[in-house]
Structure formats: structure tokens, C-alpha cells
Amino acid sequence: MVSYLHFVPTAISVTLQMSAMTTWVRHGAPFLMGGRGSDPEGTDTRFVSWERPVPWSIDRDKKAMERLHLERFRVDCRARGEGDWITNAVYNPSGPDARPDFFVVPTASPTPVGLECTQYALRERREALALLHPVRAEILARPRAEFRHLQGMAIFLRFVDDSSSVALPFPMTARKRISRLANLIAEHRPNPNALVHEPGASMPNHAPDIGVATNDDGAAIHAVPLPGGIDPSRFMGQTGFELDLAFTTTHTPDTEWDRLLSLVKRKDKPDNDWLLITAGGPDRTGNIHPAEEIAAEVLIDNPRPVATNELARVLLHRWAAGDIWELTPTPRRVVDGIPMPLPSLSPNETAVDYPTVVSSPGLIVARNDECPCGRGRKWKHCHGQPW
What we know:
The protein is α+β, with helices and mostly antiparallel strands. It has seven helices and 18 strands. 21% of the residues lie in helices and 26% in strands. A hairpin with a 5-residue loop joins β16 and β17 (324-326). The protein has a seven-stranded mixed β-sheet with strand order 2-3-4-13-9-12-11. It has helices spanning 62-80, 123-130, 133-140, 175-187, 234-239, 253-267, 291-301, and strands at residues 3-4, 17-26, 29-38, 44-51, 54-55, 86-91, 102-106, 113-120, 153-159, 196-197, 213-214, 219-225, 242-251, 274-279, 287-288, 313-318, 324-326, 332-335. The chain is globular, with a radius of gyration of 22 Å. α3 (133-140) packs across α4 (175-187).
């Protein structure tokens, strides 16, 4: 059996005392790489260098996705026989935009309560992944023969500019730069033999020459052989190779609690009794973003009080870990996690490969602009919605 070294570029803008490196693996294939450490002030800091969204389901509308998240929550409660799980749940009959999303009946009381659902999303990562869509579209529009030599490879793409060690991909309007990037990928000739690692051999002290190719637009690429257990995206199914983005984000207690409390504030409205926040669950395109569970772990490891005006309960549910946390008034575990593999699609389902994007300081999108995901819809009617 031949083993290959796997290299993912990582650039961190803060000084860290490293304590651990993180790799999530499914069927022998990595789909997330990052690490953990502390800054000079001792602040717990996690970073994610790369993630490959996992196709879990088909494209669904907002209500269907909320129902899926609620049912997964109920299953995890029942599997452990713990928690105040829900015996029945019905949609709000007033319409899709009415508040709350569901009326549910908990086991502890026959009185229905209003439950609102939302997702704990890493906006900056989803944005960056969405900007790869026009690059993929450019590659798919070209003859397959241009890229045939890349079959069986994963192309890692990163961007560098003068002000940041890691920059966002090109905006979808930069057609010439997107075309030049596709040319760079087509002309790249990887050498997988340079990455062969003999069984039983020690790890090298220095990285071998992995054949990084660059262009004048600040793009850099390198290729590694794809592991056999990878979940194929629709793009890979058509080209035979995968295109991944190496984009590092850091996550501290301050950044993640600000993110969570903004969700709570937005949902802390009359008629909402419970709030269910799902971390790491599938989005409306059916893809799971595993980095979101890493960020949620920062909340769990660094608990802070959560005050609300209308909400009686705020629950954080981690999709893959299966654990459930009551966040009000102070975080506590109410259901232990059950490690579960991320399932693939059933044979009769097809994943939709549109990345999800939401607004952040790194990418400014007006409500009436075209959504960067490439579907052709306005931002406010597409990924500008909370789900």
C-alpha cells in the first residue's frame, strides 16, 4: 500500500503557543485540518486551515431544513433517554414567515411552547467557499481534456495579498482573473511521487518540494493525491479532481460568544419560548460545514452566562457530536454526545454543490445584488436569508 503526505497551507495572524493539531477523518480521508493554542494573554484560540464541506442531504427549503434539524435534535434526546425532549412538533400554521417556527409539546408539560430554529454559521468561511463557485464554473465550461492530467488529485488553492497572509478568493465579477486562475490549474503538472511516504518510515523534518504554482494575481496552488474514501462533490464527479480552498480562520471565546449572542438577540422575541441552535448541521444546500462544530466547542469550553427577555430556553445542539447544551442562564450539558459518522447521501439522492454564503466584513453584498453563489438570484432571496 502506498501512503502519501498531505499538506495544507496554514497562515495565522496572531502569535500562538500551540497545544494540539486537529484532523477530522472520514473513511480514511481528511476533511478538516486546524489546531488549538493560546495567545500571549493565555486566551484559548482554535483555528481552521481547511475544510471540505460534506454532502449530507439534497437541496431543501427553509422549512424542510428546520424540520430536519429539529428531528435530529429529538433523535439525539431519545437515543440517550435524557433531556426534556419533544413528543410532538407542528409548523406554525400562520405561514412560513410567522414566528415561532414550530409549536412543540415537551415531555415535562402538556402545554405547547413556541420553538424557533436557527443555525450557528461561520459566515466568513461560507463566504470564502462560495467564491470558489465561479472558478469551478469556468473549469466546467472548458474541454475536459485540459484537466485530464489532474484526475485523482486534490488541488489546494490559496490567495495571498500585500496586507494579509491569507486573502479571500476573487469576487465573481473578476472574470479575467478567474480565467487566469483556471489557466494556472490547467497548466499545473503535479508530481505525486514527491509525496510518497514509505510504510514504517519516520516523518520528514522538512516538507518536500510539493510543486507550488503561482500567478501574478496572488493565487497559489499545489496538488496532493485524493484518498480513496473521499465523499465526491458534484464538481469532482464531472472533472475527476477536487478543488479545495485553504483559508485560515481563528476562533476565540470573544468572537464566538459575540456570534452566538447576536443570534440569541435576533430571536429573543415575543412568542418564541425556546430557541434551538444547531452547530454543524446541513445548510439549505445539504452540505455540512464541520468547522462550525469546532467553533461551537469554543463556547462549551469557555462558558458564559446568557440572559434573555422572552426566551425561556436556549439550546445548543452539535450535529455530529450529538451533545445538547442548555445555555440559559449558564451553559450546562443536558444530553451527552454520541459520536456518529457523517452519513453520505442515499443512492437516489444527489447533492447540490452550491456553497452557502452570508454577509461578513470580508465581503460586502447589497440586498439587491446578485448572490455570489452563482444561482442568479438576488442576495435577499437567496443566501442573504438566515438559512
